[in-house]
Amino acid sequence: MRLDIVTIFPDYFAPLDVSLLGKARRTGLLDVHVHDLREWTHDRHRTVDDTPYGGGPGMVMKPEPWGEALDALAPAGASRVPRLLVPTPSGRPFTQSMAAELAAEEWLLFACGRYEGIDSRVVEEARTRMPVDEVSLGDFVLAGGEVAVLVMVEAVGRLLPGVLGNADSVADDSFAPGAMEALLEGPVYTKPPIWRERVVPDILLSGHHGAIARWRRDEALRRTARTRPELLARLDPDSLDEHDRQV
Ligand code: 6GU
Q1: What is the pLDDT of residue 168?
Q2: 142 is known to lie in a ligand binding site
Q3: Which of 123, 137, 147, 150 to mutate to test the pocket of ligand 1 (most atoms within 8 A of CB)?
Q4: CB 131 within 8 A of CB 122
Q5: How many helices (H) and strands (E) does the chain have?
Q6: Per residue, what are the HEC states of 205-240?
Q7: Ligand 1 pocket check: which of 136, 149, 151 to mutate, most ligand atoms within 8 Å of Cβ?
Q8: Which residues contact ligand 1 via a Cβ below 6 A?
Q9: Three-state secondary structure call for residue 100
Q10: Hey, what domains does the chain have and what are their CATH numbers?
Q11: For residues 160 and 21, is the Cβ–Cβ distance under 8 A?
């Protein structure tokens, strides 16, 4: 998968050299290109922002550098276009199912806004030549899109075939499509079996794989009911068996 990231702070993306994604880059599974938006400015001060029309606080990112950046990275009339992702608290929510959908793309282009955002004509015009999603991580405000892009790249990157060591570990994740959709993963344990007088639940040491799977599902249902009750309403009633209903 190819990723292009446009930002005024390329240094934010140093973590992409580390750990799982660093290895995915070194092995060629992930081809990441980080670009400084100021490369597409032409004035002495390399200006990327200006005051908002209509007044109000803060600054807005100017359309010209963004237009040139998108023209350079996704030339008009090319046979392939990237999917453009624009992180913004006004976007639609980023979810595990969106991460899975993005993991199936060949090429993603991330546009990191700062200040009060990017002049709205940039996304409007980009939509005439490529698929565009404005995406939010949740109901809070970050200082810019960079950290949001790191989050999305990690969520998408770990789903690429060959990136995780254990290929089927993603199926048990919270929110994983299938049995864990709308469920939070329950508690996990490792050795030693007793630590500070606290014991690991017997069932996990029993070797009964069917009973362990049942217990994990019960714990996931209980944890979800406790911490995210609104998620239970999203569970498909047909996916619940008699036992689930008693939990
Ligand atoms: Cl995607 N960007 C910014 N700047 N703030 C956010 C966000 C994104 N998601 C939640 N808050």
Answers
A1: 58
A2: yes
A3: 137
A4: no
A5: 8, 9
A6: HCCCHHHHHHHHHHHHHHHHHHHCHHHHCCCCHHHC
A7: 136
A8: 87-89, 135-138, 140-142, 144-145, 148
A9: helix
A10: 2-157 (3.40.1280.10), 169-246 (1.10.1270.20)
A11: no
State pLDDT tens for residues 104-161: 999 999 999 987 999 999 999 999 999 999 999 999 999 999 999 999 999 999 999 9
Does 210 carry a binding-site annotation? no
Position 100: which residue type? A
ipTM: 0.96
Q: How many residues does the chain have?
A: 247
For ligand 1, the distance from its centroid to the CA atom of residue 144, given in whole angstroms, is 7
Residues 1-13 pLDDT 10s: 999 999 999 999 9
